[in-house]
Write the structure tokens for this entry.
Amino acid sequence: MVGATVTAKNTETNATFTVTTDSVGEFDFDSEPMSYGTYDLTAQMSGYVSGTMSVTVSEGVSVSGATFNLVESTDSSSNKSKGMPL
């Protein structure tokens, strides 16, 4: 999803970093000074229920290929969802 907000919060230090998905719905935290540790990632977009997942950042580990499934909050009966690559 283009324009979704993705926040990474370190579970030990509470340091928080926020980025926005690009023109193809992808994002990265390469420009952020993130330290190693466990982060709760939260994806949010207007009209959708936010999604959260936990990831561990360590030396030599790349976080990619994961997908957030955000469910439309205005039409829960149809259970529509859209994947957002991580």
